[in-house]
Amino acid sequence: MKRIGTVVRTSQGLAVLRADATENSTDDGAVEDERSHRIGTTALDDSLAEVGRVVDVFGPVDQPYLAVTPNDDVHLPSLVGSTLYAR
Fold first, then answer.
1. Three-state secondary structure along the chain?
2. Could you tell me if residue 81 is inside a domain?
3. What CATH number is given to the structural domain containing 10?
4. Which of 35, 47, 68, 80 has its CB 3.0 to 4.6 Å from that of 15, i.e. a possible disulfide?
5. What predicted TM-score, i.e. pTM, was given to this entire model?
């Protein structure tokens, strides 16, 4: 499980996350896996319950924002301040 970011606000029925900073490469030249910042990634809360899916990635490349569309059973305002994860 990988931390993808923290929900900073809600807008137009979406949870907006500030993604965790990622490095594009490591000291030995290997490229770090950035799949958690891709559209279609499943977002989970800290209890491993599925919250929704990433539908947009925007903003600065080094620390983008992610828009997550919530599942029907998720109360969107309760996500603000929560950390979300990806498998």
1. CEEEEEEEEEECCEEEEEECCCCCECCCCCECCCHHHCCCCEEECCCCCEEEEEEEEECCCCCCEEEEEECCCCCHHHHCCCEEEEC
2. yes
3. 2.40.10.230
4. 68
5. 0.81
